[in-house]
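Fold Annotation — chain and its backbone

Encoding — discrete vocabulary of local shapes
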Amino acid sequence: MSGTVVKRRGWLWLGLIGLAAIVIGIIIGSQKVGRLCGSVFVPKSIAAQLYDTLQGSYGGAADECKNSIASASVPTWILIVLGIVMIVTAFILRSVANRPTVAPAAPAPSVASQIEDLSRLKQQGLVTDEEFEAKRAELLSRL
């Protein structure tokens, strides 16, 4: 595979890896962090609070749940944000790579060369004397 094809498809791979990072982040964030705890996206610790109440201790299991959820939220959000950044970067790379390049315009022929071309056309009989004089006067007026 040539280098230009790889460069052209690099944005696609970057976008797919970004999408995979987001999906993995969502999966990690959806998992319960403990037996009595919720997840990063649904941080319910009601079961842990009830457990604490029944045991007569206040805050033990519920605090552990909150700490576990806070710990699990770091990799979850890092993966999601990293994935979003990768996808945005992929779209930027795609738009830059697909931007048409504008070729520099060829310099306009000089008035002298245009008059020489017109003279050749007159000698070949393709331009009449009147047309030659009118066009020559127009070209000379540009100077």
